[in-house]
C-alpha cells in the first residue's frame, strides 16, 4: 500500500491510503493517526482519520510543511509491519427499523428517489437481491459494523459492515439530497451506513431510527458524560432491532436522562477477522449471546 | 449588563477565534470568518484580541444596551446608527444605557464584527464561545440570534480605549469588488481533465446566494470535467465521487463537476466529493467578505507562495497589534 500525500493549502496534509474502501486501508489510517496522537508533535492542530485516508491540520510556523511530510512518511515506514489490532469497544445501537418518521420523510421526498414507487427499505432490499424487507433488515443487523470515520456534521459515524466484500450492502444515495432527515435516522449510501446525529439535509437512504442520542452538547445521557460525541473511529457497532413498545420505553428513559447503551470492550484483530469473518463475528461480545 | 436583541438581522452569531482539536469528531473550527477584522475590532477597543464578538451578516441586527459601554465595528462597511444617528465604522463609539444600535445594509463586504468593551460573557464550549449552528453548539444557545435574546456582557471591562479612537485606513481590511483568491492546487486535482484543471483558473466565477458560513457556492464558470474511470469500491458512480474523506478548511469541491464549493470555518468535516485545491490561509478572510453575486477569480500558487502570503498576513496582524496595543 503506497500512500499518496498532498497538501490542502498551507495548513493541511492529506494522505490517501487507497482509492477504494477496504479494512486494511482503514487500519493503516488508524495506525498512523493513533501513533500521531501519542507523539504529540508540536504544531499539529488536528488529526483526522477517515475511511481510507487521513488528514492533519498543522501550523506551518511551528512545523514546516516539508518537515511534517518527511516525518509522517518515516512514521508510515516504521508502522508498515505493525500488528493490525485495535483495542476498541462494541456499541449496541437499538433501531426501530421501518419506523413512521423516516417513512413519512421518505414519502415526502419521493421525487428525488431512484424508485418513487418503493420505500427506501423496499428499494434497498431489491437492489441487494433480498426477497423481502425483513431479509434485508436481518442482513443489516446480523453483522457488526466498524466506525470508519466520524464527521460530515458533529458526531455522525460512517460505518463499514464487517462482512466479505460480496456481501456488502450497497445502495446509491438519493438522486438529489433531501432537505430534511430526522435526527438519529439510520442511513445508508454506497457501502456505508451512518446515523444522522442532528436533524438536517441528507442524501442517504433511510432504514430506521434509534432512540439513542449520539451527539448532545448538553451531555444528558450517562454514556455521553465524558464526551458530547458518542462515536470514535474504530468503534464496532451492532444494530439491534427493537419494536415500537421498546422504542417508546427508550424514548422515555432518554427524556429522563437515564438511557443506557450496552457497550463492551473488544480487542479487534484484523487478520483473525479476515481469516474467517463468520466465526469471528460470533466470537464478539454482545447481548445477542443469550445466557 | 446585557444587550437585548430587538431584531436579529440576517445571520448574527457570537464568534471568536474558534475551536481546535475536535475536527476528527465532525466539529469544525467555527469562529469569525474574517479573523483579521474580528481581531481589529477587539484591539481597537482595548479588549483581549480574541474576546467574543457579534458577527453581523449583510443586514445587521437592531440591539438595545442595558448599560453604558463602548463598542467598535470592523469589517464590512455596514454603517452603524446609535438611536438613529449615523456613526463611523473602525472607530470606538460610546453607548449610553438604553441606547439602540442598528446598521445600514452592507455597502461593501459581507460581515461586520461588533466588539463590546470586555466582550460578550457566554460560557466557552469546547474551549471557544464561537457558534456552530449546524451542531447547535457554543455561542448563544448554539444558534444565530433571535429577537428577544439577552446577551450578557462582561461586568467590569479591564481597560477601555478612548472614544473616537480610529483604525488607520492602512490597517482596515480591504473589501475588493472583484476578489482574486489564491489556491494551492492538489488533493484530487489530478482527477480533472487537463483542460478543466486549467480552465478553472481562467474563468470568472460569481458567488451564489446559497453561500454561508459552511461554504461558498460559485456559479458562472464552465462545468468541470473529471477523467472517466472505473469507480473504486465504495466511492460512488459519479466521476466526482471519492471514498468519503476529510475536507480541509478552504478546500474547493465540485460535486458532479457543476458548482464549486469553498468550505469555510463551519465546514462539513468530510464527505464524498473530490476536492481540486485549497484556498490558502491568507485569503480565507477575504472569501468570507464576499457578497452574493460578487465576482471571484482563482490564481494557482505553489506552497512557497502560499507561505509567503501567510507571512505577509501575519506581518499585517503584527502591525495592527503594534498600532493599537501601544496607542
Automatic annotation (TrEMBL), chain A:
EC identifiers of the protein: 3.5.1.54
Pfam families, A to Z: CT_C_D
Keywords in alphabetical order: ATP-binding, Hydrolase, Nucleotide-binding
GO molecular function: allophanate hydrolase activity; ATP binding
Gene3D superfamilies in the cross-refs: 3.30.1360.40, Cyclophilin-like
Residues covered by the Carboxyltransferase domain: 3-225
PANTHER family in the cross-refs: 5-OXOPROLINASE SUBUNIT B
Protein name (Swiss-Prot/TrEMBL): Allophanate hydrolase 2 subunit 1
Protein source organism: Aquitalea magnusonii
Automatic annotation (TrEMBL), chain B:
Keyword hit for ATP-binding: yes
Record bears the keyword ATP-binding: yes
Residue ranges of every copy of the Carboxyltransferase domain listed in the record: 24-316
MF term (GO), any: allophanate hydrolase activity
Enzyme Commission code: 3.5.1.54
Keyword list, A-Z: ATP-binding, Hydrolase, Nucleotide-binding
Pfam family, one: CT_A_B
SUPFAM superfamilies: Cyclophilin-like
NCBIfam families assigned: urea_amlyse_rel
Protein known as: Allophanate hydrolase 2 subunit 2
Species the sequence originates in: Aquitalea magnusonii
